[in-house]
Amino acid sequence: MPPLERHNVGKTAWLRAAVLGANDGILSTASLVLGVAAANPNSRSAVLVAGIAGLIAGAGSMAVGEYVSVSSQKDAEEVDLAMERRELIEDPDGELAELAGIYMDRGLSRNLALEVARELTAEDALGAHARDELGITEITAARPLQAAVSSFLAFAAGAIIPILSVAIPSSSWRTPVTVAVTIVALAALGATGAILGSASWKRAALRVSGGGVVAMALSSGIGHLVGTTVG
């Protein structure tokens, strides 16, 4: 028996949640601390409090948002599966013909499509309809808790990077060090996500870090403007 091929579709759910969470953690926290540092460059404590508050609020928000979003997907899947269960009981012949029609649309002859549909129905009728009619499989099924935990941990891990980079240097080096560390972290994150998904890491790194530069520049500029105005 030949070895099974390794595909990336099984990574989609957790990879998306983890990359999105880490990216938001790095960029939103970096933008926040840079804005506060620009407004009040001599107060390390104010910058740290802002960063930690941003970490807690952002991680919690990401987790709740992912849980609610993926739960809605899971609810929709469960409604469709309940409908299929009822139809399989009420009209098994119609469901068999429907499944055979799906296989015929994919290129099988009528007789072969009916034979395949009968065998799969005898083995696991609901599983066959879930997979081939609804597109729901074990790999792609919604997992709200997994998405929420992945997002929370990824955001927190990402947010720690700019918090440490802004806490350690002196006030004169705080902004350039944070900007440099954040750009490197974003580029590394983009490259890692691309590599895990078997995509081009150079393009991903440039895309993520470039967007981060724009966001940090805007936050720092607004913080400087607000600090000058208020001061």
Mean pLDDT: 82
Structural class: mainly alpha
Largest sheet: none
**Contiguous runs where pLDDT drops below 50 for at least 5 residues:** 1-5
Counting DSSP H or I runs of 4 or more residues, the number of helices is 7
What is the total tally of β strands? 0
Tally of discrete structural domains: 1
Q: Can you give me a brief rundown of this structure?
A:
It is built from seven helices and no strands. With 231 residues, it is mostly helical.
Describe this structure in words.
With 231 residues, this protein is mostly helical. It has one domain (10-230). It is 84% helix and 0% strand. Helix 1 runs antiparallel to helix 2 (44-90). The protein is elongated, with a radius of gyration of 25 Å. It starts with 11 loop residues before the first helix and ends with a helix.
